[in-house]
Description:
alpha+beta; 9 helices; aminoacyl-trna synthetase; 21% strand; aminoacyl-tRNA deacylase activity; aminoacyl-tRNA ligase activity; Ile-tRNA_ligase; 13 strands
Amino acid sequence: MCMSLLQYCKVHYIPGWDCHGLPIELKVLQSLDQDARNGLTPIKLRAKSAKFAKATVKAQMASFKRFGVWADWDHPYLTLDPEYEAAQIEVFGQMVFKRYIYRRRKPVHWSPSSRTALAEAELEYPEVHVSKIMYAIFKLLTTPTKDGLLDEFPKLSLAIWTTTPWTIPANAAVALNSKLQYAIVEVQSPSPDVTSSSEDGKKRIGSVLKGSKIPFFIVALDLLSTLESKWNVKLAVMKTVFGSDLENCRYAHPINGEECPVVIGGDYITTESGTGLVHTAPGHGQDDYFIGSVVMETGWFSDIAWSQFWSSEM
């Protein structure tokens, strides 16, 4: 419209207002005391929100008129008008008949304070929040690789890295890059500086790197030197394989011991950071959800793993 006006074209401007959404409901709730909120039903909240929206539209319309904005002020469109809602339902029906609409499970963010679902655009993260990273190992249970590629390593684990340790309980798979080269490594000569305390500023190391029976790990070959520096250990390469060789292996879930699959992920799995093996929780994150949806169609996930996936998004 603005471009048309700049080109000296006559424009029939019909103003409109989006009268639905969480911001309006929050404004209404903020104007009520606690007793009024407790007795508020969804129907009453909608009625109060509609009344608030119409009053706000009236005030904004008066301001625009004072600014000298030319528009069809007598016939604006409001998304709460029944005619507008009916038109939306008609368009949605056409999309259904054309098979543009499909039903599928997807994680939905929930606001405990507002007691409603949130769109991703409505999420705000505090700038001061820091999520600590964590390295962990998941013990392999079965290794159905070609030509018994991993049979000589009975105690073999997957080394993962995550910036969201709180999603570990929702883990349902470990994803890797089929084109990357992975190394089976043995931890040698752990440094005496390795400590389990973080009081003096040193990194906290778990019991795995300090034990006498350290298992073999699988990590991305290109990240070997980086991990040696971060873990303060020497890693000896025992064998190298490609990510495609590890597909379909199964490991024990770190919390409940359930069998989970090793799957092929996307291009987001790189050697820029981490271990080259990505902890995957389909209830958290777009890439994880996509991988989980693909794997679901193959039937690789156990019922318990999927129940964790779905419960995390309800």
